[in-house]
Amino acid sequence: MTWRDVVETRTQTHTDLVEDLTRIVAARLLDPLDILFGAGEELRERLGQQAEEWARTLLGEDDGAAAYTAIRLVSALYPGDAAFDPPVAWWGTPFGRAVFRRAGHPAASAVPFSVAAAVLGITRQGVHDLTVRGKLQRDPGGGVTVDSVRARLATRA
User: Fold this and answer.
1) Strands 144-145, 110-111: parallel, antiparallel or unpaired by DSSP?
2) CA 115 vs CA 55, 89, 127, 143: distances in Å
3) Tens-digit pLDDT profile for residues 6-20
């Protein structure tokens, strides 16, 4: 398969994920390196190739490889001593959705309706409607379970 075949067979989800990963890694890692060391175009070209591979893995069939890649990327891009708990809007990005689908929420077994809505690309009212209809499982402590949101994502993939 040639590079052109790969580009032509990509889905919009794949394309969006590659663009999101490229933007995030460039902003969080390459831009600071460029400021400090003059990283140059070689790393940016490599990033484009690597983002394609990460996206293929995150969207691919191998659940273990996808979860490992998601966790590795989050750890490298968002280091810190506190539990990873990004803003609600982050979960609505292509990368946020891929992380949730493949690895869940790293710090919670349940999420607020707002996070579930961002991940699913619907409104909080839509999440409420899905819980009433039994399509998402309400958590006794509030919100909905991560597992039920991941299961809902899997049915839409």
Assistant:
1) antiparallel
2) 22, 8, 10, 9
3) 444 569 999 999 999
Quote the pTM value.
Answer: 0.85
Residue 101's contacts (CB-CB under 8 Å, 6 or more residues apart) are 119, 150, 153, 154, 157
Report the C-alpha gap between 27 and 21 in whole angstroms: 10
Q: How far apart are CA 68 and CA 54, in angstroms?
A: 11
Domain boundaries, the chain: 1-82
- Residue whose token pair is 């995030």: 24
**Tell me: the pLDDT tens digits for 123-136?**
999 999 999 999 99
What are the backbone angles phi and psi of residue 138, rounded to the nearest 5°?
-70, 140
- Minimal CA–CA distance to 6: which of 93, 42, 24, 15? 15
What's the CA gap between 58 and 95, in Å, rounded? 9
Which burial class, exposed, middle or buried, applies to 10 when counting CB atoms under 10 A from its CB (0-12, 13-18, 19+)? middle
As given in the structure block, the two tokens for residue 87 are 């803003």
Residues sharing a CB contact under 8 Å with residue 68, sequence separation 6 or more, in sequence order: none
